[in-house]
Amino acid sequence: MENQKGLSHDHLARLLREHNIIKGEFAGHSHQHDEHKQDHSGQSLTYCPLFRNMSQTEHDRFLDRNVKEVLTFKKGETIVMQGDPISSVMLLVMGSVRTEMITMEGNILDIDIMEAVIPLAPSFIYGERNIYPFDVIAVEPCIFLKISKEAWLEEMSNNKQMLTNFLTMNADLTLYLTSKLQMISLKSLRKKLATFFLEKTTAESGTFTLKRSRTQLAEFFGVQRQSLARSLKEMEDDGIIKLDGRKVTIIDRNKLIRE
Q1: Which of 12, 31, 112, 249 could be cross-linked to 242 through a Cys-Cys bond (beta carbons 3.0 to 4.6 Å apart)?
Q2: Residue 112 forms beta bridges with which residues?
Q3: Which are the contacts of 222, defined by CB distance < 8 A and separation ≥ 6?
Q4: Residues 29, 141 contacting (CB under 8 angstroms)
Q5: Contact at 8 Å (CB) between 193 and 255?
Q6: How far, in Å, CA of 253 to CA of 139, rounded?
Q7: What's the CA gap between 122 and 92, in Å, rounded?
Q8: Max alpha carbon distance in the chain (Å)?
Q9: Burial group, residue 185, by CB count within 10 angstroms (0-12, 13-18, 19+)
Q10: Residue 52 burial (CB < 10 Å; 0-12/13-18/19+)?
């Protein structure tokens, strides 16, 4: 029976070698100092919402047909800038990136941290004004597969599952951005934190691991690091949450909801 877990690592490794990129060596330059860091270098296409419920063979053939260029970026490099035209589909297959937006007032608004495997700005690829709405910066060494928009569109027209996945992913992204706007509109930092923690957990699963450092989390909420630390300590003292490094455990969900 065919393996349904997605793109084989051997197939991706071969593809990268054909483009003169040794995946293992490049991944070796990732951070070594962060004990909470996850290794995203071995992810398969099954982790990408666009390729959900597709077989390994479909994944591999899709790459063989469409990948003509592979791009690599070092930690801290800017991959695209806000306002750049979206001339192709950029599929992140290794590493993670940070997205941020410059507001009209000149402030930096932290949007999200995205991990492989995922395309950049899928909702904007085929828009009438198809430009990147944010800067994309490498959090660690990254590898992108560059695929033409025309080829991607043709693949979706010939594959109902891929088209369904594309529409679902864009709907989910719209919902996420709506939630982000609602959270930004909240006045109290504790209310913002409560909303954030509720989105990351459920009544059945009340623990999650933060992707961001305390400094990055403060930037995400648009506050000073000291203000964030104070609010987190207050919520711990009130018996609402428990912090252990980047691990967050919800102790009293009802209190969190009432924040």
Answers
A1: 249
A2: 99
A3: 107, 109, 110, 184
A4: yes
A5: no
A6: 32
A7: 12
A8: 57
A9: exposed
A10: middle
Pick the CATH number of 9-183 from 3.40.50.1360, 3.40.50.970, 2.60.120.10, 3.60.15.10: 2.60.120.10
**Side chain identity at residue 231, one-letter code:** S
Strand, coil or helix: 209: strand
User: Is the N-terminal amide bond of 117 cis, ω within 30° of 0?
Assistant: yes
Cα–Cα separations (whole angstroms), residue 29 to 19, 24, 91, 96, 257: 19, 9, 20, 13, 42
Structure tokens at 130: 């198809």
- Contact predicate 80/130, CB 8 Å: no
Q: Where are the domains of the chain?
A: 9-183, 187-258
Topology of domain 187-258, CATH = Arc Repressor Mutant, subunit A (1.10.10)
Give the pair of three-digit tokens for residue 75. 């930690």
Q: Count CA within 13 A, CB hemisphere, residue 46.
A: 14
Residues 6+ apart with CB under 8 A from 93: 12, 43, 45, 116, 117, 143, 144, 145
Q: Which amino acid is at 230?
A: R
* Edge-first strand listing for the sheet containing 135-138: 78-80, 135-138, 96-102, 108-115
